[in-house]
User: Fold this.
Amino acid sequence: MLRSIRRPLLPAVAFAAALAAGAAHAQAAQPPVKVGFMLPATGTFAALGDMIEKGFRMYVDEQGGKLAGRDIQYFRVDDESDPSKATDNVNRLIKRDQVDVIVGTVHSGVAMAMARAAKESKTLLIVPNAGADAITGPLCAPNILRSSFSNWQPGYATGVVAAQKGYKRAMTIFWNYAAGQESAKGFTEAFEKGGGKVVKELTLPFPNVEFQPLLTAIAAEKPDVVFAFFAGAGAAKFVRDYDAAGLRRTIPLIGSGFLTDGVLEAQGAAAQGLMTALHYADGIDTPRNNAFRNKFAVTYKVNPDVYAVQGYDAAQILASGLNAVKGDLTKRDAMIAAMRKAPIDSPRGKYTLSAAHNPVQDFYIREVKGRENVMTGVAVKVLADPARGCRM
Ligand code: PHB
Assistant:
């Protein structure tokens, strides 16, 4: 058996050894920040998840691959946009991978389960899309922040636009889960405040795309306008089916901008002229947005969309927190306070987070021209979510 022989070190050797130990200690104190992506990699929202991750990584890469001097280590879970698997999936990141921060997700139902788990375990959560009103409402918490929107926001902005256009009788059509319900509620609130009336709601379960019977009901009712909430592959099909049913020329279709974001290639001629409202537009002509779009296109060989912007901004929010505490995640309160207050220099325009941690932001009017959602005006400036039920 070997026995280590202890001998007193010479002073110079002892000094060098102490230095080496110190350097090793400093390195050990700064392991990578563990970021867990919980996003859809399969299903109707797969492309949206991909764009969020691309946006997030691009911001980190722009900072030299580090935030506040710390490397970033990524973990990933495909949430399949399936709420029934959400708690197990988020616990893979929290318990198995022990991530420092979770970034996710797209689907409101999945995100609500994530918010509950994050609240309970106090894991930092940045939501880069899912609009569930509850996340910055009754489920709000210091460690939960959102870089996207609440469902109420784009719905409300679209309602303002529809009322301004002079439409009086509207029908709404949406997937019957939090995102659809809350978007339609926001739309109805603004549209009816502006003198209109929602005469009928049509729904189908997520992610069903059997639109035909509902399109028949729209043709029979003949409203002045139809408000729709669909996104991803479902939105691509809905817009094509609406056009194929001959409705586009007779009953104007309007929607929160998810209806046409990231899917114009698939919608082609069927989407031309569609008006939507959203917190991003392709044609925002600012140096910030132009630089972002060019860099994204060069890096990924694809044009960015609203989801890419939200992913990019999720990384910016994290960076503002980490920078404020020089990468020391144990200084949690200071980090969260910095994220809450930081002005976010987004491609969509500058914004800050509300007290409930949701972006207070402008909503643009957009019109589809070719393969772009071109900005044609502003629907509502600095729109804050009402954050009903949030106490923190
Ligand atoms: C949502 O479920 O909150 C959701 C999904 C896709 C969108 C927008 C919202 O494009």
Notes: The radius of gyration is 24 Å. The pocket of P-hydroxybenzoic acid is lined by residues 106-108, 129-132, 151, 179, 231, 258 (CB under 6 Å). Residues 1-27 have pLDDT under 50 and may be disordered. DSSP finds twelve helices and 15 strands in the chain.
